[in-house]
Amino acid sequence: MNFSFELHATDGKARTGVIKTARGDIRTPAFMPVGTAGTVKAMMPGSVRDTGADILLGNTYHLMLRPTAERIDRLGGLHKFMNWERPILTDSGGFQVMSLADLRKLTEKGVTFKSHIDGSKHEITPERSMEIQRLLGSDIVMCFDECPALPADRKTIADSMRLSMRWAARSRDAFGDRPGHALFGIQQGGLEQDFRAESAQSLIDIGFDGYALGGLAVGEGQKAMFDVLDFAPDMLPQDKPRYLMGVGKPDDIVGAVARGVDMMDCVLPSRSGRTGQVFTRRGVVNIKNARHADDPRPLDEDCTCPACQNYSRAYLHHVFRSQEIISSMLLTWHNLHYYQELMAGMRRAIGEGCFESWQRTFHQSKAQGDIEQI
To answer: Are 373 and 295 in contact (CB under 8 A)?
Structure first.
């Protein structure tokens, strides 16, 4: 089965549809839980699916270092290795390499860097990134790019963007013809509208199955990110999926969907679950706080996840403070469930033509704050 995208409805700039892949459909707008090293931390694959996730993200950089893409390939590919038979998107490794600024050397060819694990030397080029992602067997492959941290001057942003576009062309050539697998290009250009336009046109000229908005959520703040999203998605083809990389908080996600984004990923719901931060309809709850120690109520009275259906705030507070593993499991499950309910709510609202009123309700509920203490 070939990769395809069907747009079912729009409401303003917000869109809902389905991405069809050989391993199953991805309902959009879609949130992708992050399985950095072949696992969504503290979750079983079946539990992730039960939250409503259609697709996971795997991390090229981490998997190439440990256990290596070659080993995963010998063992049947990433889907079999991690027991997830639905679609997987793998990032290119570019963002992680950016974060290793003190351990890397950047050239036209690619990036050489030292492993954060053992200091061993490695190289990623566009060709090597495509090879790694082919060995992993990912359904959606990201082209290799360079992502500068913000803020940065215009020359730095322009040079980086144009290097990424040259790497995008090499990624396209190296990816070749792989029926059933898709390659996404990544728009760069920082906060600069002219650079974003130049990048988008370069990617369209090369031709990709989908298009990502890169170089955001890297320190610029929500207002600056939304300012870019007010124009950047419109530069990309209407008939292809648009993926905002590394976003984000619930407010970020809702704002991105309102501006025409179809796919997102972020470590936040799982990372926050492990640190006791919980997302609810009425905002963020810090379960570590003493106010929850005697509270028999659930985290969110309207939530159907196992943490809310079966356990009290008092219990969740206790196991978090006691550093019990079940705390990470239950709080991560809740957060991922909340994120998927958020996506499902937006898909329904867009399909019914009431997305603007849905947004108002979402923001009003959050503004109320957490439920009152007993």
So the answer is: yes
Which stretch of DSSP H or E encloses residue 146?
A: none
Catalytic residue among 91, 209, 295, 300: 91
Could you confirm whether 25 is annotated as catalytic? no
Q: Which residue has the tokens 């650079």?
A: 195
CA 151 to chain centre: 22
Taking only the tens place, the pLDDT of each residue in 177-213 is 999 999 999 999 999 999 999 999 999 999 999 999 9
Domain 4-266: which topology?
Answer: TIM Barrel (3.20.20)
Length of the chain: 374
State the DSSP code for 253: H
Tell which phi-psi region holds residue 260, choosing left (phi > 0), alpha (psi between -120 and 50) or beta: left
What is the rounded CA–CA span in Å between residue 212 and residue 233?
9
d(C-alpha 65, C-alpha 118), whole Å: 10
CA dist 311 → 18, 128, 285, 314 (Å): 35, 47, 15, 8
**3: three-class secondary structure by DSSP:** coil
Tokens of residue 133, six digits: 């992602």
Q: Which amino acid is at 277?
A: Q
Helices (H), the chain: 45-50, 60-65, 69-74, 78-82, 94-98, 126-136, 154-175, 193-206, 222-229, 250-258, 268-274, 306-310, 313-321, 325-352, 355-368
pLDDT at 374: 60
> Which candidate in 145, 262, 265, 300 is catalytic?
265
What residue spans define the domains of the chain? 4-266, 273-368
Per-residue pLDDT band at 114 (split at 50, 70, 90) = confident
- The tokens for 42 are 């503290």
CA-CA distance, 142 to 58, in Å (whole number)? 11
- C-alpha dist (Å) from residue 328 to 174, 204, 322: 40, 42, 11
pLDDT tens profile 209-218: 999 999 999 8
pTM: 0.97
| Cα 191 to Cα 151: distance, rounded to the nearest angstrom | 9
For 18, 173, 268, 275, 346, the CA distances from 248, given in Å and listed in that order, are 21, 31, 7, 16, 16
Q: Residue 239 catalytic? A: no
